[in-house]
Specification:
Elements lengths: L11 H16 L7 H15 L12 H22 L5 H17 L3 H6 L2 H22 L5 H12 L3 H20 L1
Length: 179
């Protein structure tokens, strides 16, 4: 399945089916023998899924690739927000590192050439939101914060990063005020 995720977007159906299989594995309660196996596989799956972001060998259908990435971001958001209750610290750590790497990959000059400006902003806005949420939901207190700080500094010149951060923080304040 992970090999399929390296296919170009001309194999759109196969790529979506691979994501669907991973989704089934991660969401089915009794698919794995125990919590340890579930976390071990989740970490592998998150790393494998990041192949969807790699557009470099696929210059045929940028809109298809964009939609695949958006579908994956939605899945990752679901995993961290709904399934995160069974994540071990290492699983959250892996997910956050994957999100940081993928977000950074989407900020490259090559990404600016491949995606339309509108699509790149949409992708970055969504992945930043999931990244911020994953940090909040993880409750991690380890070296992952220094990694986050490093990339925040790197991305601080990007308007989409600042806008996403602002929106996320405002939403947190609004939820706190209404509760």
């Amino acid at each position: 399945i992970s090999y399929c995720l390296t296919f170009p977007s001309i194999f759109e159906d196969s790529l979506y089916k691979s994501l669907k299989i991973y989704r089934f594995w991660l969401t089915k309660e009794d698919f794995f023998s125990d919590a340890q196996a579930k976390n071990d596989y989740a970490r592998r799956i998150f790393k494998n899924m990041s192949c969807i972001f790699d557009y470099r060998r696929d210059n045929t259908f940028p809109d298809v690739r964009t939609n695949l990435i958006l579908a994956l971001i939605d899945d990752l958001d679901f995993y961290q927000s709904e399934l995160g209750v069974w994540f071990e610290d290492n699983t959250f750590n892996t997910l956050i590192r994957v999100l940081v790497g993928c977000a950074d990959f989407l900020t490259t000059d090559d990404a600016q050439k491949y995606f339309t400006e509108e699509n790149q902003k949409k992708l970055l806005s969504r992945i930043y939101h999931v990244l911020f949420s994953a940090f909040c939901n993880s409750k991690l207190k380890n070296e992952i914060w220094s990694l986050f700080e490093k990339y925040c500094k790197k991305w601080s010149s990007l308007l989409i990063f600042l806008s996403s951060w602002r929106t996320f923080i405002l939403n947190i304040f609004e939820k706190n005020l209404s509760s």
